[in-house]
Design a protein that fits this description.
globular, 5-stranded mixed beta sheet, about 200 residues, binds zinc ion, about 25% helix, alpha/beta
Length: about 200
């Protein structure tokens, strides 16, 4: 069983102040979150830098990822180190993820840049039901969406500054291994948690 923050922005996202080095140091220091997905906006450059820094620490894991600004709303891909080809429609990006055994996630569906009810039209693998910077009410709507679609509900901080890191995390029934984590997510062996507030589903 591992605990992973599945949605983090580094300084390679133009709107984040989380340096890759800070992310790695905070992950090393944290007492139970030991895995983190780097999901910068439309780039995997921050991921590469963070992975290189993390190599020195065998007890943490950086999960590859990206947050794509699709034409219908933000979509996370977990497990990819490369960018999907343009144009970024949800359908094309979901297909890209599936072909590579990655996990596609509708990010904060009921917040700005979220895809809302449109998520129902696509074969996404999971819904982000607990986003660290979304309101409780939009997280609740996301939780209801996941439930009605029969999809796993994931949690991530969506940190854009160091103090927001690890405020939301996903408990995954897997060891500290990317492939195992992705497979466990697809099987729904996950639970969403928050350290910043108590949210009851
Ligand atoms: Zn984000």
């Amino acid at each position: 069983m591992i605990k992973a923050d599945l949605h983090i922005h580094t300084t390679y996202s133009s709107d984040s102040t989380v340096k890759p080095k800070t992310l790695v140091e905070k992950l090393v220091a944290h007492n139970f979150v030991k895995a983190a997905a780097v999901t910068d906006h439309d780039t995997a450059k921050g991921l590469t830098v963070t992975q290189k820094l993390a190599v020195a620490y065998p007890d943490i894991l950086i999960i590859p990822g990206v947050e794509i600004s699709t034409t219908e709303g933000d979509l996370l891909i977990l497990g990819t180190e490369e960018m999907p080809p343009q144009p970024w429609t949800v359908e094309a990006v979901v297909d890209f993820a599936r072909e590579r055994d990655c996990v596609s996630v509708a990010a904060h569906p009921y917040r700005e840049y979220g895809m809302g009810d449109l998520a129902r039209n696509y074969k996404v693998d999971a819904i982000e039901v607990l986003n660290g910077v979304s309101s409780s009410s939009s997280n609740k709507l996301a939780h209801d969406l996941a439930k009605s679609m029969g999809l796993p509900g994931l949690a991530g901080s969506d940190a854009h500054n160091p103090s927001e890191l690890f405020t939301a995390y996903t408990e995954v029934q897997a060891s500290l291994d990317v492939d195992e984590i992705l497979k466990a997510i697809k099987k729904g062996l996950v639970a969403a948690h928050s350290t910043a507030r108590s949210i009851h589903f």
